[in-house]
Amino acid sequence: MRVSFLFFSLIVFLTAALGPTACDNGAHGLKKGDPAPEFSLPGLGKGEFVTFPADFQGKVVAIRFWADWCPYCDHEMRELEPVYQKYRDRGLVILAINVHQDQPTASRFAKRLGISYNVLLDTQGKTAAAYQVIGLPTTYLIDHNGRISTKIIGESTAQLFERLVAELLP
Fold first, then answer.
1. DSSP characters for 93-127?
2. Is 34 helix (H, G, I), strand (E, B) or coil?
3. CA of 59: how far to CAs of 9, 18, 98, 121, 162, in Å?
4. Percentage of the chain surpassing pLDDT 70?
5. Would you put residue 132 in left (φ > 0), alpha (ψ -120 to 50) or beta?
6. List of residues 6+ apart from 40 with CB closer than 8 A
7. Given 23, 67, 106, 119, which is the most exposed site by the fewest CB atoms within 10 A?
8. Are 154 and 22 in contact (CB under 8 A)?
9. For the segment 91-148, what is each residue's pLDDT rounded down to a tens digit?
10. How far apart are CA 8 and CA 81, in angstroms?
11. CA angle 77, 11, 1 (to 5 degrees)
12. Sign of torsion over alpha carbons 86, 90, 37, 117
């Protein structure tokens, strides 16, 4: 666990140093227009389970990967809440996927932030690996057809996130 924490800390540091709000142009790995990888993950509630993309047909989905030790995740997750509130009735879904942490840790963090969007648990990191996440936070915006529209590596601003989401919504 300690090695994993140190590895992700190093990646987060390098991501921050090289451009914390950079948008990936898709030069490596998953590219714009590719179908988003499928996954099924438990949520924070007992018996809660989410399957993507099956549960969200026709929606615009923000899939964001985070952990409580990530220095940028706290601020960014709070910043996304008002954007989610503004656009959820138009079809925006946010799936905040906690990577490599247990339910009590993720639950405490989400409760402290007061967020209302979905928090999911990727305790083994398999979904993060499928999305080729190398640093936290990482956010993918998926269009209403289930295809990758944008990948944001590092912390995003509410303004950038809102602009990108608004372009995808009807």
1. EEEEEEES--HHHHHHHHHHHT--SEEEEETT-HH
2. coil
3. 32, 32, 21, 21, 15
4. 84
5. left
6. 49, 50, 51, 52
7. 23
8. yes
9. 999 999 999 999 999 999 999 999 999 999 999 999 999 999 999 999 999 999 999 9
10. 25
11. 85
12. positive
Residue showing tokens 């800390």: 9
Q: Domain tally for the chain? A: 1
- String of DSSP letters for 139-169: EEEE-TTSBEEEEEES---HHHHHHHHHHH-
Question: Among candidates 67, 59, 65, which has minimal Cα distance to 84?
Answer: 59
Give residue for tokens 């952990």: 67
Whole domain around residue 93: which residue ranges?
A: 2-168
DSSP letters of 69-91? T-TTHHHHHHHHHHHHHHHGGGT
In 3-state terms, what secondary structure has residue 129?
helix
- In this structure, what CATH number is given to the domain that contains residue 7? 3.40.30.10
Q: Give per-residue pLDDT as tens, 18-33.
A: 333 333 334 457 999 9
- Residue 145 has a CB neighbour count (10 Å cut-off) of 13
